[in-house]
Amino acid sequence: xxxxxxxxxxxxxxxxxxxxxxxxxxxxxxxxxxxxxxxxxxxxxxxxxxxxxxxxxxxxxxxxxxxxxxxxxxxxxxxxxxxxxxxxxxxxxxxxxxxxxxxxxxxxxxxxxxxxxxxxxxxxxxxxxxxxxxxxxxxxxxxxxxxxxxxxxxxxxxxxxxxxxxx
Length: 167
Fold this sequence. Notes:
By secondary structure, the protein is α/β, with parallel strands linked by helices. The protein is built from 6 helices and 4 strands; from the N terminus they run H-E-H-E-H-H-H-E-E-H.
């Protein structure tokens, strides 16, 4: 963070997924989904939470007077990576994944949205963007509220707090 603060154009970019819209209603009283686990719900809500956390991070930076760092999310589309190849997937997910492979793009193509977010002058100074293979895309905000975002942020800070204190 210290180096980003010194930068004229600091950028924080996280990778989410279009699957953020497929997790259904988030259980903010069970963020880790210990009581509501399903393979797709875990993946979809985790990607939704990445977007919400990055939105809140931008607010935290601005509250500290840090205005030179932008915070954005990208998604690669369906790229041929090793993500999702776990042997712990349900059989149906393995089958769907195998059928989907011919429709996937290369890792290089999938990385274009993140490279764009990191280097493009077109979006310099802009935050809360969601950038995918089609360019600027819209986040599915059906379950979004500032209150939900804050619940997630507070949970994340509780989880990572002990690690941040060790620095």
